[in-house]
Amino acid sequence: xxxxxxxxxxxxxxxxxxxxxxxxxxxxxxxxxxxxxxxxxxxxxxxxxxxxxxxxxxxxxxxxxxxxxxxxxxxxxxxxxxxxxxxxxxxxxxxxxxxxxxxxxxxxxxxxxxxxxxxxxxxxxxxxxxxxxxxxxxxxxxxxxxxxxxxxxxxxxxxxxxxxxxxxxxxxxxxxxxxxxxxxxxxxxxxxxxxxxxxxxxxxxxxxxxxxxxxxxxxxxxxxxxxxxxxxxxxxxxxxxxxxxxxxxxxxxxxxxxxxxxxxxxxxxxxxxxxxxxxxxxxxxxxxxxxxxxxxxxxxxxxxxxxxxxxxxxxxxxxxxxxxxxxxxxxxxxxxxxxxxxxxxxxxxxxxxxxxxxxxxxxxxxxxxxxxxxxxxxxxxxxxxxxxxxxxxxxxxxxxxxxxxxxxxxxxxxxxxxxxxxxxxxxxxxxxxxxxxxxxxxxxxxxxxxxxxxxxxxxxxxxxxxxxxxxx
Length: 472
What we know:
about 35% helix; alpha/beta; globular; six-stranded antiparallel β-sheet; about 20% strand
């Protein structure tokens, strides 16, 4: 089958694309930025990539000869006031474009919406589902609750909490019930529902075999990791205080923390159906899903992470708009050193940040991360998805990867920390020299004052970093 897949760089779609390619389907992958095509599918002969922004699409952008489509566009971390209108508009534009093709089935991954008092984001997902319904193609909706897998937002947030806090004083919404579902089972439902006519124009709740509270999920996660954790829930923490609690303890943004708190107050219990028998899947329990996730992490084989979504940080534009370093109106710190072993230096550059740190004065980098978090930034806690691999669009601590090419020996980062301006950090090897460039484009007087305030630290922080990169 020839399948259109949206949200190609997202957490679910990136994994689903690999599953569909294994099944020998031909994919037409929609991306907003052609510089962010995932490395693992970029050169696959079964993949075609088209640039589409469903908030402002070009007419006739979607090829006519597609058999099915996946609608996997959703962001919980947007800070837009008209979030629901944007979601509806995006779905309507997708519907209009797909309706002009030969598409017979659209598959949409939504959230379980059985509670009467839905959160803002669950209401939005239901609204999108209603918008996508059509007389031209059949809509199949899978409604999932908490998704458990390496790199998923819920998994990484629970991991942060469990690994950092032996004793927790938590909000009362930790007693809310849910039915977590492993990411592998989600992908089985999505791929298994393709082309099944008995699923046309129907919606199905998909969920794991256990009903657990968030508190029980934390404790079971701790048990899998071999930790002893103690949890006390208090009724006094307001939604806003709860959001701040999540924001400062975990790697999430404040917008995502607020959205999660809003959603976690609602019970997510699925309605039974025969969907498991139709697809032929027996969903795994929560502990099994957590164990499998850590196998991926230990093998450094995490395919996708919520942190790599552009909406996880402050970067809003297409990467291509920032790839060329600005030349005018900027402050620069440029250093170069002779490279002794090119392969060794490239590997160190591609392993920078995350657990490996920044090779010099890590305490100062951490302090800058704490300050950024204090002022509402992303901080250093996002880390990196892979310890050795980088590609355009990846989150790297409080940076965003704009360009990464080992063949061209160039890595370019853009700062997502709170700054009175814009900042880039580039590493590039030319002949036998490593060039390290820090470029800052200030905004107003405060931007210029900021540069001169941090300038004394550059002498040893940036110097130490480049020395470490070339040192054998």
